[in-house]
Every structure is written in structure tokens, then in C-alpha cells.
UniProtKB/TrEMBL annotation:
InterPro entries: NAD(P)-bd_dom_sf, SDR_enzymes, SDR_fam. PANTHER family: CHAIN DEHYDROGENASE (ATSC), PUTATIVE-RELATED, SHORT-CHAIN DEHYDROGENASE/REDUCTASE SDR. This is NAD(P)-binding protein. Pfam families: adh_short. It comes from Amniculicola lignicola CBS 123094. GO terms for molecular function: oxidoreductase activity, acting on the CH-OH group of donors, NAD or NADP as acceptor.
């Protein structure tokens, strides 16, 4: 049995992980979600596959996360093999502004940065800390953060991608936090990885790049790092690629920020 916990498992990439992993009855899959409102497809799948356990929690509340970890522990008798920190969001409408666009808009800037830091960085640190005692007892001992190419300096420099300020800063910040956990926990054999999923056809991607004009604009930028990229990849393809990288993760790569191809260059 390999046990996996995935945050943000109602939709998109998170649900994709649950679908892929639960095919194998030797996997125990814990789908951590904040609400049943968007969990229809997950509930349907969980009714057919007994190795899926749905757990309601709030990743911004360490007490609720401790309770969620206790629920997982009851099933696994005190361990967890792989924790996937997938929940994330692009932030307020001001995400379309470049940094200088916030001049004279202090409140908007505070919200743009603050919301993303809360949702994409602090919540992930709370989650790791609440589940760490289970990971310590696991066989795999892996903590995976689903990051974004937007949090990479070279990607930003090469594409000229100047918007999504709070989101990009929070992803870059969490990459660093994951590296801090990696070096702290290396003596215990615990490995972390920040992993970019690529450009994936989810609700989030549709919200950010769904408009045809915006799509043309971002494709122009993306072509500067990959002339062949045509659009977002299917969820199952992105998930298969990421699982290959996760399964290959060794201590040598712990704390790195890799693409879904397992390198530091192929963002699509
Ligand atoms: N799609 C892409 O091209 C792309 C590219 C780079 C990185 N990513 C990253 O991949 C991850 C998954 O994104 P996605 O494209 O699958 O997005 P999505 O389709 O919008 O799904 C996001 C999931 O995260 C949950 N979530 C969002 N904010 C949350 C919060 N504050 N607390 C708890 N749950 C929260 C959502 O729950 P609800 O259903 O309750 O809203 C949903 O389950 C994110 O971290 C994103 O930044 C995606």
C-alpha cells in the first residue's frame, strides 16, 4: 500500500491525481477538499473506488489541518507516504496588472500579494507541518509542491511575463520554503520537490488564458521559451508526467524546482 494525500482535489490537476492514483487498488488516496460544493465528480468517483477517502478541511487553519491529519492517521495507522500540495489560486482581478500598475493603489497591492501569500504559501507550510509526523513514518517520505513556471526567474526573464504578480511571488516563495524543508529534513530521509505542471487545461487555466485575445498574447510570450507550444495539455497527460517525476525523486534532487519533464528548462 502506498498512501497519497492531495490538497485541492475537487477539480483540475488535483482531481486528475486522484483519478490516476486510485486506479491501482494498492494506492490509498486521501482527497483533501475545502467544500463539497464543487466535489460532485470526486464524490461520484469515491463511491466507485473504495481506496479514495474524502476529507473536508481548511488549509488556512492549522487546527483543522491537524484534525485532517488525524483522520488520515486512523486509516493508515500513523503514516503517509506522499503529500501533494496542489491547492492554489491565481489571486484577485488585479493579477492582470504589471508591478508598476499598482502605483497609487496600496490596498490593491496589499491584497494582490497578501491573498496569494496566504493561499499559496502560508497554507502549504501549515499543511506540511500538520502532516509531517505522518510523513516521518511513511515509506516514500515525499512532499510535493505543485508550483508554477510563473514562479521561475529565467522563465519570467525570457518570456517577458510581467503580470500575475502576487501568484508568481507566492509560488517563488513557496519554492524556497520547500527547499528549506528539504535541507532541514534531509537527515531523516524526507524529500521535497517543487514541480511545475506545465500549461494544463483546467478551470484555472481557462480563467487566466481562456479569452482568445489573451491566449494569443500569452502564446507569443510562451513561444520565446518553446516555439512548439500550442495550448494547454490535457489533465491526464500532465498528471502522468508529474507522477513519473515524483516516482523518480531521490535525495539528490530534493528541494529542487523541476518541470513536469523532470528538468529545469522544458516548461511546456
Ligand atoms: N492549470 C495550469 O496550467 C497550471 C499551471 C501552473 C501551475 N498550476 C498550479 O496547479 C495547481 C492546481 O491548479 P488547477 O489548474 O488544477 O486549478 P483549478 O482547476 O482551479 O483547481 C484548483 C483546486 O484547488 C482548490 N483550491 C483553490 N484555492 C484553495 C484554497 N485556498 N483552499 C483550499 N482549496 C483551494 C480548488 O477547490 P474548490 O473546488 O473548492 O475551488 C480546486 O480543487 C495550482 O496550485 C496551480 O497554481 C496550474
Amino acid at each position: 500500500m502506498v498512501s497519497w494525500a492531495i490538497t485541492g482535489a475537487t477539480r483540475g490537476i488535483g482531481l486528475g491525481f486522484v483519478e490516476n492514483l486510485s486506479v491501482d487498488p494498492k494506492n490509498q488516496v486521501f482527497a483533501l477538499i475545502r467544500s463539497l460544493g464543487t466535489a460532485g465528480p470526486l464524490k461520484e468517483l469515491a463511491s466507485q473506488r473504495k481506496n479514495i477517502h474524502m476529507i473536508l478541511t481548511d488549509i488556512s487553519d492549522p487546527t483543522k489541518l491537524d484534525e485532517a491529519a488525524a483522520e488520515v492517521s486512523k486509516v493508515t495507522t500513523g503514516s503517509l507516504d506522499v503529500l501533494i500540495l496542489n491547492a492554489g489560486s491565481a489571486g484577485p482581478d488585479t493579477a492582470v496588472l504589471p508591478p508598476s500598475g499598482f502605483h497609487g493603489k496600496k490596498e490593491a497591492l496589499d491584497l494582490e500579494i497578501g491573498e496569494s501569500i496566504k493561499n499559496n504559501l502560508l497554507s502549504n507550510i501549515y499543511t506540511i507541518n500538520s502532516f509531517l509526523h505522518l510523513i516521518r513514518n511513511g515509506q516514500e517520505k515525499k512532499v510535493i509542491f505543485i508550483s508554477s513556471q510563473s514562479g521561475n526567474l529565467e522563465f519570467t526573464r525570457q518570456t517577458g511575463f510581467s503580470t500575475l504578480l502576487g501568484y508568481s511571488v507566492s509560488k517563488a516563495g513557496m519554492n524556497m520554503a520547500a527547499a528549506k524543508f528539504a535541507v532541514e529534513l534531509a537527515p531523516e530521509g524526507i524529500k521535497t520537490l517543487s514541480l511545475s505542471p506545465g500549461w494544463v487545461n483546467t478551470d484555472a487555466a481557462k480563467a487566466v488564458t481562456g479569452d482568445p485575445e489573451v491566449r494569443k498574447y500569452v502564446l507569443n510570450m510562451f513561444h520565446k521559451v518553446d516555439p512548439n507550444v500550442e495550448g494547454p495539455a490535457p489533465i491526464d497527460e500532465a498528471v502522468s508526467n508529474m507522477l513519473r517525476v515524483i516516482r523518480n525523486l531521490t535525495e539528490a534532487d530534493s528541494g529542487k524546482f523541476l518541470t513536469h519533464h523532470g528538468d529545469e528548462e522544458q516548461w511546456f
